[in-house]
Amino acid sequence: MPNNSRVVAILPARWASTRFPGKPLHSIAGKPLIQRVWERTRLARGIDRVIIATDDERIAQAAADFGAEAALTSSAHQSGTDRIAEVARRLSEEGDLGDQGKKRETISHIINVQGDEPLICPELLDRVADTLRSDPSLSMLTAAHPFAPGEDVGNPNAVKVVLDCHDDALYFSRSPIPYQRDTAPGQPAPVYLRHLGLYGYTLPFLLQYVQWPPSSLEMAEQLEQLRALENGAKIRVLLTGSGSVGVDTPADALHVEKLLTGEHA
Question: Which pTM value belongs to this model?
Answer without folding.
Answer: 0.91
